[in-house]
Design a protein that fits this description.
The structure is a homodimer. Chain A is mainly alpha-helical. Chain A has a single domain, classed as Winged helix-like DNA-binding domain superfamily/Winged helix DNA-binding domain (Arc Repressor Mutant, subunit A), CATH 1.10.10. The first copy, chain A, has six helices and two strands. The first copy, chain A, has a two-stranded antiparallel ribbon with strand order 1-2. In chain A, helix 1 crosses helix 3, helix 1 crosses helix 6 and helix 2 crosses helix 3. Chain A is globular and about 60 Å long. The structure holds a DNA duplex.
Amino acid sequence: MEVRKSGVKITYKGDYALKTILDLTLHYGNGVVAIHDLAKRLDIPVKFLEQILLDLKKGGFVASKRGKIGGYHLLRPPAKIKLGEVVRFVDGPVEPIACASLEAAYKGCRDAHRCLFKDIWLEVSKAIADIIDDVTFEDLANKIKAKRGEIAYQI
Amino acid sequence: MEVRKSGVKITYKGDYALKTILDLTLHYGNGVVAIHDLAKRLDIPVKFLEQILLDLKKGGFVASKRGKIGGYHLLRPPAKIKLGEVVRFVDGPVEPIACASLEAAYKGCRDAHRCLFKDIWLEVSKAIADIIDDVTFEDLANKIKAKRGEIAYQI
DNA sequence: TATAATCCCTATCGTTATAGTAGAGTATAC
DNA sequence: GTATACTCTACTATAACGATAGGGATTATA
């Protein structure tokens, strides 16, 4: 039995993480943002968001300031944070089945060279990577700024 | 809370279903194949495969013959069975998050027109569909036939 | 017609992931 | 020194996954 995690699924945790990073992108350079504010704006349970932010901190995406007037800010400029990076960090490998890993190192599928389907799943993995690794959070923020004036934007 | 199933994941059930349809493709036109033979060739637990075949029957992919010398055969010619069809039938919608449905009818995401990420997940869904809806089981069988002689093929 | 081989159907089960909730602790501004 | 924030660990309810179990119904053939 294969135990390696796989599946291209954006969980609530992943979705929340992306929205959080995007919100922090919009506040990049303006100090920290408190969990409470993020949770309220993005409609995320506070205690759940706490865990997510701790993870993102371990992942090197955000840094925090403790105590009163504490909060979070991005550790890297939004132009250097790719969508795919965050997705993979929070929700795991982006591949439809464990045998279709883009990491060449993975040797789990014994019959890899014989399995027709593997080629297809590899193609799928690659197509997805091409999309999510081509978008940075700066790109996303720019889209929002372009939209401002058209409609009131809300994540 | 969203309850709709989503996620681009090929489960064991899905993987088994694909391999089963492929095996039946290789025997298309030569009568029925017994569950036992399929299970042995494809290394699938017999009782699990029973369930999968019953599902595939409900889905109109296969038909069965009961009694002694019974078994399964494809209901449609392999050229008319797309990979994506089987995947969607067995493992559900192929989209990374419920809001990114290709079915225009789905209205679950209230802020759809405002959410930047939705566009990306829709793009991902479309890229996957372009791949898996372009391959038929006849195509796969032809690849196998082309490989025969090179190496002993085994699913 | 007996029997063996085969498909048909429902129920159950152990494990893991998901989406939280709870509560106590630590740091800092004022 | 206290209110406001982040930190960390533990717990829980639900569902999906990957089977397994145990019959019942059908049919070819001896």
